[in-house]
Amino acid sequence: MNKIIKPTGISLTFLIFSSIPNIVFAQDLQFETSVPMRDGVKLAADIYLPDDKGKFPVLLQLTPYNKDGTAEAAAHYTSLGYAVVVADSRGIYASEGTWTPYVNDGRDGYDLQEWIGKQEWSNGNIGMFGCSCPGFTQLLSAQYASKHLKAIIPECAQSDNYSAIWSTNGIYQLGLVPAWGLDQEAAATDQKRPNVNWGELAWHLPIADIPKLTGISSAFVNESIQNHNYGEFWRKMSIREVYNQMNVPALHVVGWYDDLTEETIRNFINMRKQSASQHARDWQRLLIGPWDHGVKPRRYYGDVDFGKDIENLDMQALRDRWFNYHLKSEENGLKEEAPIRIFVMGANEWRDEWGIAKLFVIGCKGAVAAAFSSSHFCSVIGPQAKGICPGVVPGAG
Fold first, then answer.
1. Domain 2-159+242-353's class?
2. Is the distance from CB of 153 to CB of 322 less than 8 angstroms?
3. Other Cβ atoms within 10 Å of 208 Cβ, number
């Protein structure tokens, strides 16, 4: 695996110079290149290439969690013949600009896609991958409908931050938001991360004083506390009003115990109904397993045994097949498979569904209810069902 870098003046043991102007190849070493956005701000991006020369389909991730943590995934995808681009979100880690969660990720994601489409090592076909916030950045950029964006896999992604993650329709999420928001602000501004007891701070009143007690000042966190009602502050980081502008196949993935289960289902349903083309509407897929935030197809969840069937899911193989079909036109049986796959807890088996009449989540001590159009399936999973619902484990945005 090679990684594109611009000359940095750093002494390297072994460099391979390519024919691409102003670009150097360094075997398995991590360096950055700068990608200009429409307003001149430059995002730091790592660009990995397969060992072969040529033009490649590209997999992109835009993340606020430090691009340097994606090297292992990049190594996997380059071994399959993909170029990989991983960029830090605006204003955090190595990227320029001011850090404001979510607000710039849509336009910046689109600008990255347009830039990638013009590079000599790109064949113009782009997919996006990532979980949690890097899942949401995919959807935020999808509203701009780059011609290069061919497929995405938004795992554990919200549709909105007023009714999920930051707030539940105006009820502030004290168990997550102050810690996440102020920790990210510290990373973006090179401050020491808060060393506080977040559990105790969650009980502090007034809520507006919590940031002061951590020593970290965040204009975004302060505004999120002050904006009790849905308005422009929340609208500019929501995709609920722009599903009809999206035009990309999406594999939506979430767990029954994730705090974003309902949000992921909402994205699937609305992109299936409203996406701009029949192709995009036909290619919405949904996968729900018995895990919390993240994708964890393991047999044991706490003291609950979900049986051997859970281990039949190879999530990485599914990601590979998804991208191979949509970016490489590989006929791998994907189009013959059902659009919905869920793990039925209690029965402890994977089940495929072709049609969906309604799919919803009800919050009652962690209870989850789902009803599909197939006459043989109607399942209510929760504390009432053999005690297998250990509760919803909060995730991150």
1. alpha beta
2. yes
3. 12
